[in-house]
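TA notes, week 10

Several of you asked for a full example with nothing omitted. So below is the full record: structure tokens for the whole chain, then the designed sequence directly under it. When grading your own attempts, check the secondary structure regions first.
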């Protein structure tokens, strides 16, 4: 299990250079306007979304689990506590296929409990990001890629 910190950054190249030096690590995955670091020491999934117009630096937080049983137990616990907003299964988002549960803390910060089921899907779309974790990034990518 490791925590996830998803940040909105002004300049992806600048942020990747900084975090590479800070953690003495290379990004695990890098795409247009997106990068992530899958660190073991400290156990952290650092996700960077390039969005110069973002109002907030924190995009969302998460807990990544490595097996289906741990995720099922988390889903049950969160549902029993009335904290689950959405459960997604086999969703391709942020360049990986995942199962997850979303919740929101009282001041609006979004959290996800998730497990990656395919880290390199054939269709590396950001389908969930249209409405969930990073709508501003999808808009920025579309604007940047428009003719």
């Amino acid at each position: 299990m490791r925590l996830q910190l998803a940040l909105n950054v002004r300049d992806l190249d600048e942020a990747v250079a900084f975090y590479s030096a800070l953690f003495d690590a290379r990004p695990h995955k890098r795409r247009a306007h997106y990068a992530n670091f899958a660190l073991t020491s400290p156990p952290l999934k650092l996700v960077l979304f390039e969005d110069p117009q973002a109002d907030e630096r924190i995009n969302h937080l998460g807990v990544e689990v490595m097996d289906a049983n741990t995720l099922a137990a988390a889903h049950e616990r969160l549902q029993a506590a009335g904290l689950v907003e959405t459960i997604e299964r086999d969703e391709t988002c942020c360049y990986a296929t995942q199962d997850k549960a979303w919740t929101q803390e009282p001041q609006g910060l979004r959290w996800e409990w998730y497990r990656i089921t395919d880290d390199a899907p054939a269709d590396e779309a950001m389908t969930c990001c249209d409405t969930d974790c990073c709508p501003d990034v999808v808009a920025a990518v579309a604007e940047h890629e428009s003719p």
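The chain has a mean pLDDT of 85. Use that as a sanity check on your answer.
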